[in-house]
Amino acid sequence: MAIDPETGKTKISSLRKWIGFAVFFVLAGVVGALASGRLENYRVSSGSMLPTLEVGDCLLVDSRRPVVPQRGDIVAFYNPENAAERLVKRVVAGPGDRVRFEDGLFYLNDEPQYDEDYVTIEQIEDLPYQKPVTLDLDQYYVLGDNRAYSVDSMNFGPITPDDMIGVVKYIYWPKSRMRAIHNPNGV
To answer: Comparing C-alpha atoms, which of 48, 132, 64 is closest to residue 98?
Structure first.
C-alpha cells in the first residue's frame, strides 16, 4: 500500500480492489448456498475417515436433491440406527453391487479391492463373519477409510438416498487443510 502525498491517505491498488470484490462474491455465494439449503455445514467428530478427513475438519456438503452418489464419493448421512446422529463415510458400492468380506478383505462384485489408496488398512483382522449382500436398486454400502475404527454399513447395513444429507465437496477449515474433496475413481 502506498500513501497519497496530496491527501495523506492510504491508496489501495486496483488489483487489491479486484481481489477484494472476488473474495466478497465467493463468500456471498457460499452464504447464499447455505441459506438456500444447497450446501450444508458438517464437522468431523471421529477418526473413522482418517487419513482423508481428520477430527475437527469442517466440511461443505452438496445437499441438492436427489442425492445420487457415485462409488468413491464421501457422503454425509443420518445414522440408520440413530436418526439424530450424522455420519460421514465413503460410498464403496451402489445399486445392484454385491459386497462381501473374506479373510478381512473387502470384495466388490467378487473382486478383492486392493486399489483403495485412501484406506488406512486394507485388511481388518478379527472381522466377524458377514454374509454377502447384494444391494437393492436404492441402496448404497458405505465404509470409513479407517476401516478398523469405523461404524458403517458393516454394522448397520446399506443406506438409501433418503438417509443421505449429501455429497461432501470441500474442507473449509482448518485453513491448513482447505481443499476440494475429489472422488478417487475420477467420477
So the answer is: 132
- The DSSP annotation for 80-101 comes to TTEEEEEEEEEEEE-TT-EEEE
Task: Give catalytic status of residue 48 as yes or no.
Answer: yes
- Global pTM reads 0.79
Closest by CA position to 89, among listed 28, 162, 164: 164
CA–CA separation, 32 and 35 (whole Å): 5
The C-alpha atoms of residue 139 and residue 119 are separated, in whole angstroms, by 22
Give the pLDDT score at 135. Answer: 97
Catalytic residue among 48, 63, 150, 153: 48
Domains along the sequence of the chain with CATH: 1-36 (no CATH), 39-180 (2.10.109.10)
Residue 48 has pLDDT above 70, yes or no: yes
Q: Does residue 167 surpass a pLDDT of 70?
A: yes
